[in-house]
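Researcher: Checking consistency across runs. Here is Prepilin peptidase again:
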Amino acid sequence: MLAATTDLLRLIAVPALGWAAWRDVRTRRLPNRLWYPLFAVGLLTLVWDGLSHLPVAGVDDRLFFVRVGISVLVLVPLAYGLWWVGGFGGADAKALMTLAVLFPTYPVFYLSTGAYPAVVTNVGVFSMTILTNAVLVGLAYPVYLGVRNGLRGDQSPVMFLGRRTDVSALPAEHGRLFETTDGFTRDGLDIDALRMYLRWRGTSLAALRAAPAAHRDPASVGETNEPTDGAVDGSAVEGEAAPGEAAVATDADADADTDVEFDDPWAAERFLDEIEGSAYGTAPETLREGLAVVTTRDSVWISPGIPFVVPLFLGLCIALTYGDLLFGLLRAIGAV
């Protein structure tokens, strides 16, 4: 492989972003320290390339600085803005900001089969190519979900947006419930918030399902625990009920009066008042509705909530090899 030294240095983003995508799918948590070395490499290569275009003596030099300006001054604020309005997670925004600094212009890699990326846009801003590739890859995911659900016989109004999951598997899942007791919703209970609630109560989903009426009584909540941030850690609290726990809970539920109205069912308001933060924007009624769903059904529809870091990684890999998917498509139909 022949390439500029700065372009070779930028390839560190491939394994780093690949690891980030894998970890984000499994845990929905990425350490901030991941982005610092990548950002440092981006600044180093940006300064290195910038010095090679000084003094500005021709069109190529001017184009380089224009492309850097578009990448840094457009994509970085865009990523921050999407995070600010809730369209991006924090890790997604940091990943896009980092790529905007790392890849402001197109790299070139010479292999025995030719020069790559193969399809280069007229604009020449490589971070924009990564972003548009990621968006196109992300748009393919609902199609995959719809086909998958159709083949499994899981048909519903949300079959292109979610998947049916056994409630017993929720402690190891990520995403958001698509269901309420009355139908479907886009604003269901966040599964991380469910894990926080279970840890706060010091119980398990299996115990709640064994005795929902007893657990609905706010007086059943005694000493509470640190809720953490809801990440999956495989703890016993969120797994199966401890030996004897389900049996005891079932006895308690048999004695519970299901017609009693409580001021704070499930102690939802107490939970949200005691914890630090907002449990991913969960409101008391959303928590109560979600608990009613997961304690009365064997399977539920959930939004998988695939983090944008995953299509960003795939978009980067496609960009480094094929190039710009959107530009290639438009060129193929004669639009450019």
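Researcher: Does this match what you'd expect to see?
Model: One thing to look at in this run: Residues 163-303 form one domain.
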